Amino acid sequence: MVTGPVTKNMRDALERTYHATPDPKWVVALGDCARDGGCFAGSYAVIGGVSQVVPVDLHIPGCPPPPLAILQGLLALLDRTAKNAASTARESH
């Protein structure tokens, strides 16, 4: 879960953390800053949103996102993952 914009000095740390995390893994961009840089977009120190550095599985908009939106997003991600797993299991049998 990334909650802010990706800055130039944190890009390497984000990439290394992503690659060091074993599968299965999810990346959640939480808030407008994590989605596209938010109010910091265009700053000399900001690369932009998380998806410019690592693949993102879920974007939750807001500044900040309300707790209900966070829960709904995470539950939708779990539901989507469960449906994909069930579909894959049916295809392999």
Describe the overall structure.
The chain has 93 residues and is α+β, with helices and mostly antiparallel strands. The strands form two sheets. Strands 1-3 form a two-stranded antiparallel ribbon. Strands 2-4 form a two-stranded parallel sheet. The termini are far apart. It has helices at residues 11-20, 32-36, 67-92, and strands at 6-7, 28-30, 46-48, 58-60. Helix content is 44%, strand content 12%.
Write the layout of secondary structure elements.
Elements: E1 6-7, H1 11-20, E2 28-30, H2 32-36, E3 46-48, E4 58-60, H3 67-92
Parallel strand pairs: 2-4
Antiparallel strand pairs: 1-3
Summarize the structure.
The chain has three helices and four strands; from the N terminus they run βαβαββα. The model has no long low-confidence stretch (mean pLDDT 95). The chain has helices at residues 11-20, 32-36, 67-92, and strands at 6-7, 28-30, 46-48, 58-60.
